[in-house]
Amino acid sequence: MAETVHNLLLGFSVALSPPVLLYAFVGCVVGTIVGVLPGVGPLAGISLLLPATFGLDATKAIVMLAGIYYGAMYGGSTTSILMRIPGEAASVMTCIDGYAMARKGRAGAALAIAAVGSYVAGTVSVVALMFLAPPLASFALRFGPPEYFALLILGLLVLAYMSSGSMVKALAMATLGLLLGMIGIDQMTGYFRFAYGVVELGDGIGVVPVAVGLFGLSEILATAGQETPPAVIKPTLRELLPSRQEWKESIWPIGRGTVLGFLIGIIPGSAHIISSFVSYAVERRLSRRPEEFGHGAVAGVAGPESANNSATSGAFVPMLALGVPSGPIPAVMLAAMMVHGVSPGPLLIKQQPELFWGFIASMYVGNVVLLILNLPLVGVFVNLLRVPYPLLYPGILVFCILGVYAVNSSVVDVWIMLVMGLVGYLLRKLDFEPAPIVLGVILAPMIEMALRQSLAMSDGHYAIFLTRPIATTLLTVGVLLVLLSLKSLVTRGLDWRARIAMAEKGEEL
Amino acid sequence: MLTTNRVAAVALAVLAVLVLFESRKLPLGSLHNPGPAYMPVLLALALLAFAILVAVYGGAGRGLSAVGWSEWRHAAAILGTCAFAAIALERLGYRLTMAVSLAFLIGVIERQGVILTLALAVTVAAGSYFLFDTLLRVPLPRGPFGL
Amino acid sequence: MTRARVLVGVVALAVVAGVAGAQGSYPTRPITLVVPFPPGGVADLTARPVAAALEKVLKIPVGVVNKTGAAGAVGMQYVATSRPDGYTLLLALSSISIIPEADKIFGRPPAFTVEQFAPIALVSADPTVLVVRAESPWKTAREFIEDAQKRPGQMSYSSSGVYGTLHMAMALLEHGASVKLRHVPYAGAGPALTAILGGHVDALASGPAVVLPHLKAGKLRALAGWGDTRVAALPDVPTFKELGYPEAEFYIWAGVFAGKGTPEPILTRLRDAMRQVVNDPDFKGAMDKLETPIVFKQGDDFQRFFDADARRLAAGVRRVGRIETK
Fold first, then answer.
1. Contact, A200 vs C70, CB < 8 A?
2. Which strands form C62-66's sheet, in the order they lie side by side?
3. Which residues of A touch C109 (CB under 8 A)?
4. DSSP string of B64-83?
5. Burial class of residue A431 in the structure, from the number of CB atoms within 10 Å of its CB (0-12 exposed, 13-18 middle, 19+ buried)
6. C155 and C213 housed in the same domain
């Protein structure tokens, strides 16, 4: 403990030295700019900007990359709230209630809550990272394909809370998403599935173009031609800040989102994306007024935004403690370290303490910098809503195309966005909600891969899911949750979903 | 009654059948060793089932005639612009493509003044290029004459 | 669109014609080095210093563009179909010879063929090494192979994906040593490494640089290498060749290619430039940090290496065949 404090002091002495601080600041600014770009999230952000750091020395480069990464995390919520365009896959849930808040004139409040939630989550998860990394890391490594499969199946239960409409419709949309996720090379056998000679479809349909198309582009399509363009919102200073009530409603979602996100983030793989979906579901389940979700519930912004921030720091646990490229973002960070001659691995902490602890300390510093940077920016960004829509949407469209293209330098991604925009537009006309599709696209390749890897490990025996304690526990929890929800259906007759349906009928009558 | 739900259900069902048909070329595998077609077939069957459920219970939804399509011209123009951008991006380069797209949307579709249109089109296209390609080194395509 | 294309064509033709006429004039505008893999991967990390050094030598900007997708096929196809004018170059890994062969097995039109590229220079060639967890019972490669012979299909290995480089290395060993192992593919080399560290598989063939820190930390043990000679950083680890399995020869290599049909003077200029690149101190420093030894070959030398490697891999892919699903 004392040693940790001592090390942390060493770290801060590195992180607070003027040149390092400067690079942390530059990283945060750049990250925010890139993060605001629709589609470009933290992963794409740091991959794209990785080469720009090659000229620096190791500590500065790592600190700057950490800044870019955190900055992109913060920036991701901005376009989701203001324009219903997910800055990244993890911000999809923020699009729903964040945008609803913006339309009610609470954009400033939503942005501020998202920034504070991200700050709390970022800071708390770094503390957790520092003290819990070694024991948690070896636990995380025990997550093999069977455990992963069980976790993802549990993730599918989230669907029940994702939309306020009919359950069957949500399931149909999720299945559609899962089917879209089947496109591309079958990773277990090498067969091309539904690619029709388009080589670019080999890696499957990216989540980014799908999310930007379904949410962002479809919003423009549906709004631009309306007889009366959306009202220009002129926020006053007082409206920028969340009200006391909004703060009160956000505290617990932020706390829960932080813990949940961190735990999901630790697990190797790409599961961290589902942390915001899970958080949204949890908040809705626990809320006393679930019917407000989808119509601007502040908890629907606070929870997911905190969760996705702490999830991505959680992903650093196995990387820092064990030198394992445990997910896409840690893999890029590891590569950056290798470029600078830092050999990432279990010996890193001992051999280069100033780098390791400087990195940790810079995460604290970066979060503070970002909070200071972002709160005033709320005022700036909200003013975007003052731009008349006929001038605003062409610009949004340009940034959608830029963001989607930049991730892979692929025009095919722009086409996918276009098609998904049309699909989203039609679904909106037909009263279907698109969020479950995105969840499906995210989960499909992971679930299928995990299932088939597990079967490859066990030579085709499903018993592998019942002989490994973590996998068995997770699956049991899933079965219990399903049974519980069935029980409430039987005993109470009406659950919240039915109440919403009743309430909506009442409105219409 | 022809409701929005039922229209969507039919579309989903058609898609499901299409997927089933297209999966025939891929090996199905078995329960213990699922092949590449296993999950798609399973999912397509599920989609078909859900589509039927939506169609059966979807009579209470909004009637198709209640859906307004007043903005379809704008939507078509925006999708067209998007398609143009996708085709032109790697041929005309980022700046030309975006300037043309912006000028079309602002000037022709939204009927703004010529000066405002040109000013916005050029500034946004060149500005975003400068920010991302030049300053942040995110490579964006160039067109003829290095534009 | 077509007019723009024609215009580009005319400009490019003029440039090509100009170069063919007067050799010294290439290059006159920025060169793009296409990396078919995402930033941060081996290919990308090799390409960045190559581009930087090439920029110094040719005195013209050399930009790296990551065109990713379909295990590299997207970027490779892009270069194969680009105008062969020396302004679009490719940094490829061993998988360049695997992808067309795999396409052939599935009877689909190949995204590209190796004949569509003109080799310029080989930059590095690292043999893979066989690693197992430190607490596993196998102390030597011989013990590993003998155990695998006793229990066919029981011991497992992770790979970077079906027909990926790490899969091919193991496939060559399986054939060379007549053993049958259980293959669990992962999505990339990173997850494959995580899998062996987590104990979900028994073995992994990996590039030496990636596993070196884990070998030093005592988490993993290296049993043998796929190289012609031992890996410099692992002098005590024998090669499969020494152990009597000469068929298990495999390298993860990186090389620079241009499109087939690039005029000979431009190729010569690029080959000269690459010779200067590998002697550039900054480049050497960068490769040192990656713990990747520079192996430089060009001209006939590279062509021979490339052909032999392609033959080996083609045979390997054919032997693996289509992944059967019972």
1. yes
2. C62-66, C31-35, C88-93, C251-259, C117-127, C294-298
3. 197
4. GGG---TTHHHHHHHHHHHH
5. middle
6. yes
The encoded tokens of residue A486 equal 């069935």
Is the ipTM value over 0.90, yes or no? yes
Segments forming the whole domain that contains residue A140: 2-508
Chain C nearest-CA distance from A134, in A, is: 14
Q: Is C232 among the domain residues? A: no
Domain that holds residue C157: 129-225
Query: What total number of domains does chain A contain?
Result: 1
Angle of CA points A183, A188, A192, to nearest 5°: 35
Closest Cα partner for C186 from A444, A190, A315, A449?
Answer: A449
Banded model confidence at residue C220, pLDDT cuts 50, 70, 90: very high
- Whose structure tokens read 């490829």? C92
Interchain CB contact of C5 with B (< 8 Å): yes
Comparing C-alpha atoms, which of A38, A113, A107, A50 is closest to residue A75? A38
Let me know if residue C235 belongs to a domain: no
Cβ of B138 and A406 within 8 Å?
yes
The confidence band for C251, taking pLDDT boundaries of 50, 70 and 90, is very high
Secondary structure (DSSP) of C80-99: HHS-SSSSEEEEEETHHHHH
Residue of A397, A423, A459 to mutate, testing the B interface (most B Cβ within 10 Å of its Cβ) = A397
Say whether both C34 and C116 belong to one domain: yes
Return the exposure string of C275-305: e unless at least 16 CB atoms fall within 10 Å of the residue's CB, then b. eebbebeebeebbebbbbebbbbbeeebeeb
The CATH number covering residue C212 comes to 3.40.190.10
Q: Domains in chain C: how many in total?
A: 2
> How far, in Å, CA of C158 to CA of C1, rounded?
46
Q: How far apart are CA B132 and CA B117, in angstroms?
A: 22
Q: Looking at chain B, which subunits does it touch, using at least 3 CB pairs closer than 8 Å as the criterion?
A: A, C
Distance from C-alpha of C277 to C-alpha of C283, rounded to nearest angstrom: 7
The model's pLDDT over A47-95, given as tens digits with 9 standing for 90+, comes to: 878 877 777 888 888 888 888 888 888 888 888 898 888 877 888 889 9
Quote the crossing angle between the two packed helices A353-382 and A107-141, to the nearest 10°. 160
Q: Which residues of B72-87 are buried (b: 16+ CB within 10 A; e: fewer)?
A: eebbebbbebbebbbe
Percent of chain A whose predicted confidence (pLDDT) is above 90: 23
Q: Are both C49 and C116 inside the same structural domain? A: yes
What is d(CA A287, CA A281) in angstroms, rounded to the nearest whole number? 10
pLDDT exceeds 80 at position C234: yes
Q: Dihedral through CA A87, CA A88, CA A94, CA A99, nearest 10? A: 30
